[in-house]
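#struct-queue
[09:14] JT: dropping the first one here, sequence first, then the structure tokens:
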Amino acid sequence: MSEPKIVILDNATALCAHAAEEIAYFAGEAVCTHGEFTLCLSGGTTPAAIYEMLGSKFQFSIAWKEIQLFWGDERCVPPDDPASNFAMTQRTLLSKLTLEPSQVHRIPGEKTPDDAAHAYEDELRSHFGLGEGEFPRFDVMLLGLGENSHTASLFPGSAAIHENERIALAVDVDDPTQRHRVTITPPVINNAARIFFLASGASKAQAVWNILKGPRDVDKFPAQVVAPDNGEVIWLLDKAAASMIA
């Protein structure tokens, strides 16, 4: 695994602008190279601001008809629920674009958790043409970082951290607002061509240190599981989030 690249921006606004520019660049590169761009999205405040920029500043400069959108995790709620990652993306990005339904591969959070996980696995296997034991390879994956050092919905102590066969899993997490979720698994994350870790604000500084400088303990610091053998990891941080490592 190559060493992660760390990019520190002045503030959250600069971070989001830089991330949107990078996504637009790699989208163009992927479309030129193999005809489509597969982007795995994250929930959270920082990604929401990035999606706003993508849907406004980059509305006409990205070949959106060649973009395929996926999600790294989802709460088990209907797609119009305010807690839904899909609903957030719908508000900030999808509502500004004209995409075919076949381009939007959401996790069906309205189903039971196990049914939603299996349905999402089937969706990924179908789109990527996966055989037994194969995992999707996203061109770009966006990952957030929780204050408890989780990413996607891989929370401290979860058995899902050690999953190496499934593509998606139903998980119960330590979050009273919505315990039932579906998450992609570590081998899916680590098969991505390029991963952007996004963290802004002083409240994320300790978690950033935990992952980049702390002792190796994936059960305590789940985001440490992100270690692709054939991919690039880029940390996009603002100065506040980077304050303990800079």
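[09:21] JT: and here's the second one, same format:
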Amino acid sequence: MYRSRLFAGLLLLLAFLAPACKAQLGKNVMIPAGSEEDHALTAINNATEPDKKLELIEQFATAHPDGDFAIVADELFVNFYINAKQYDKAFVYGDKLFAIDPDNYNNAINMVRAANEKGDTERIFASGEKANAIVQRYKAASPPSGTPADTWEQQRTQKLDALKENQQYVEQSLLGAAYQQKDPTKKAEYLQRFAKDYPGSPNGEQALTLAAFSYQQAQNRPKMLELANSVLAKNPNSIGMLLLLADDYSEKNEQLDKAEAYAKKAAGLCETAKKPEGITEEDWQKQITLQKGLALSALGQVDLEKKDNAAAVKTLTAATPLLKSNAATYARNQYRLGFAYANLKNTPAAKQAFTEAASVDSPYKAAAQGKLKDLAADKTVHKKAS
């Protein structure tokens, strides 16, 4: 089954480093100029040898086991171990930092970054969800004592604007991590988790669409149907879900009238759909062409199941050029077309369609080759009989 290309390029996202945090959420620790702490931090920052830097950080942490400067010490450890690519140690100090400063947004971004670099999907999600929760708590916070409401709203808006780049980084990190999952069931579960975390994001529905396709790939039809129908209930014009359900019902010879209606609606929507942001015109045209081909192919399968072979030939033939960019769906369409022609006793056309199905590397290659052998054997029998 065709999988949406809207997520093309996501695998590159994990190579990106988290952008610098332009505005901190959590406790603000003041370092008095000229203080012992100021001198100690200057020495740490100026140290170029990793061993010496770590020694100075440990000395600072020993001198400040608690209080606000313990926050600074844990931050120093986190940054040191991320730069040293010792991610498990970075996680240990990140957890310690959250324990004393749970709204430390910069720490959440660092944990996402470390999890990205290590390739730890569960950590990416856990840290990303912490980052989102911190932002949500800040959005819901009341004005500090003595701060007018309008002043607070202005300050909050400015700080949230400064965090947008980091918020986008977190969102793309979660989406990329989910998309990279090899196991289709795990992929579906992470994509659903992403959609729950980002209900208002344009990527939310796309994630649910991919999750439904992933359940289909995992051969978990009940979960696929449940999810696809839930998406369609919220957005009746979801081309991906219309195609998925039309394809499933037509293949299973179930609810053919609904399959036909969904396929026709998807084909119509392909004519009027607007290109979303973040995709080139060329890629958009490839995607929408393929989707229209899938809609026509599903209609052709409905015609086959309804024994209307002439209509199936017409619809499947129209789908043929639209599906050539995808070997599996093209081969399946030609395999169906071969059956339609065979049912009409048009052996030459059937052989041509099966030959086209066998010409590309797909799950239908061997089956199409088998049908060609059957047609050749049938012709031999007829010759001997004559």
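[09:30] RK: nice, looked through the second one.
[09:31] RK: The domain at 18-172 is CATH 1.25.40.10 (Serine Threonine Protein Phosphatase 5, Tetratricopeptide repeat).
[09:31] JT: good to know. Residues 281-305 form the longest helix (25 residues).
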